[in-house]
Amino acid sequence: MTKIRRETVVFEALALLDEAGLDGVSTRQLAKRLGVEQPALYYYFRTKKDLLAALAEAAMTPHTTAPLPAPGDDWRAWFLDNTRSFRRTLLMRRDGARLHAGSTPTGDLERVGRKMAFLVAAGVPEHDAQMAMLAASRFTVGSVLEEQAGDGAELPPGVPEIDHESAFEAGLALILDGLTRRAAPGARTS
């Protein structure tokens, strides 16, 4: 049996995702692509769910390696940049939002904690910071799901085409406006 590295399996699975979409990712297709028997994949991933979790984590690398906020940063600008980074990362992969939906950020928990601590230190109440991060995340995933599902779809006559980026920015501004109203008066902006 040919020995393959876990990183190679994940890399090829991401390439298969980009080519065939989430519904086209199967252990059978992946094994064929790697030139191995299907059971060879079970050494690294006992189930397809385990494989998809590893793909979701790997697909998020551009976002999870972005710089963390620094003391003194404007929390509003950081919140916008962080959410936009998440959206860009989801859009980098075919079906990126579907892959991410429902995944648990097990490898990102320390970073999430540091982001939360930054918002709280800037004057955002802890519960509101948590809910805003959750709302922004779910809004972003939903927006990208809609955007990726609609790619190439023909609209009926008279139905205006949606400018996904403008719609995303408008929704993001509403979330930030709500959070700003809940932040402590004089919450630091820089």
Provide structural commentary.
The protein is an all-alpha fold. The protein has 9 helices and no strands. The protein has helices spanning 6-20, 27-34, 48-59, 61-64, 75-91, 96-100, 109-121, 126-150, 164-182. The protein is flat and about 60 Å long. The N and C termini lie far apart (58 Å). The mean pLDDT is 90. It comes from Paractinoplanes ovalisporus. Keywords: DNA-binding, Repressor, Transcription, Transcription regulation. Residues 26-45 bind DNA.
Low-confidence runs of at least 5 consecutive residues:
none
Helix content: 55-70%
What general outline do the C-alpha atoms trace?
flat
Secondary-structure element order, N to C:
HHHHHHHHH
Main sheet summary = none
By DSSP, the count of extended strands is 0
Gyration radius from CA atoms, angstroms? 19 Å
Structural class: mainly alpha
Number of helices: 9
